[in-house]
Amino acid sequence: MSTSNVVPNDLNAFWMPFTANRQFKKTPRMFVAAKDMHYTTSDGRQVLDGTAGLWCCNAGHARPKIVEAIAKQAAELDYAPAFQMGHPKAFELANRIVDIAPKGLDHVLFTNSGSESVETALKLALAYHKIRGEGSRTRLIGRERAYHGVNFGGISVGGIVTNRKMFGTLLAGVDHMPHTHNLAKNAFSKGVPEYGTELADELERIVTLHDASTIAAVIVEPVAGSTGVLIPPPGYLKRLREITKKHGILLIFDEVITGYGRLGTPFGADYFDVVPDIMVTAKGLTNGVIPMGAVIVSAEIHDAFMNGPEHVIEFFHGYTYSGNPIASAAGLATLETYKEEGLLTRGAELAPKFEAALHSLKGLPHVIDIRNIGLVGAIELEPIAGQPTKRAFSAFLKAFEQGVLIRTTGDIIALSPPLIVSEIQIDQIVSTLAGILKTLE
Ligand SMILES: Cc1ncc(COP(=O)(O)O)c(C=O)c1O
After folding, report:
1. What separation in Å is there between the alpha carbon of 39 and the centre of ligand 1?
2. Which of 421, 425, 391, 420 is nearest to 408 (CA)?
3. Does the domain formed by 21-59+342-439 have CATH 3.90.1150.10?
């Protein structure tokens, strides 16, 4: 295809998200097309997608069923009001999500992003307790090194200092558990690392400090993705489930990355065999193609709201685009694609190959840890003294030049290829990285 006239002349107006804008605009990296496992750059090069876009294009790119569904829906019913009106596809999609969700999670609230799904879940938790006469439960517990999007609730329960420090005092009444990442004890673990299960008991300490009667919910990512693939120790999430249940605290899993097949199971909840009260999802729900999130909740929570006069709104929350028809059509086509191609479990088949390939990088310069679970992996690099993030960022730039898209966070390289990736493509990603690691400053 011709790509000669697709790069805008002036890049100034668009203030890009989570991007080093000045660096980017000096040497832009533009994608102009994508198909299956590859992007096409504006200078006509093919780049292998090692990150499923931003952990979201789980079925790869430009998948025919999804493309057709979006086009058809746009022509048939482009928009329907989300409040006090409905359209069939939103209901159908909610049912299909419930079909693949862990047993017991059977109601869906739609949003437009992971961040909005997080806010929705936190508000739901607060309202749930209030509606049941436990309005003193207002405290929210997150975790260090957690990423729950960029809105105020999410950055409050999140644990990334750069995302928090500019924005004032955030939500009141939030506490954090420690993260579980332990390089000293767990470096180069394959799959779930051995040490750190007892860190779940920090929740008991927090409960003792504040009293259970003040705590509404605990939110965790089953595997923290954005801060560099932090995998929980064995039994850690089960222990959180026991403690939350014992104290009447809701457990929220933020499955924005772990949902829809990333770990080789439909959700992280399935992988770790722990059912939360609320599951936050987005990204892979529509294969990243149209913004959409889904918050999946237990009947117990849903039913608690279904009281009072029938003409009265039960939960004062929602978005203009909640369950948008085109997003719903994209979601349905995405779930069909996952089903037809067995993608929700393909990660489990590929995990041993992915693991072996990643761990072959052990011993290369700067590599201080390699970790993996399902089709997510991370290679942690020793930072350049006094210049954190620089080494990994330069790996990212080199990989892009050499035709592979990776993602970096701090000095950690994260990989999460689309679930359609082939073994040969896994080798290509890893051998490109091997070459780069040998030449990095
Ligand atoms: C665990 C988690 N929660 C929430 C979000 C926010 O999602 P979004 O960028 O769609 O708002 C992300 C995004 O990476 C995420 O990884």
Report:
1. 22
2. 391
3. yes
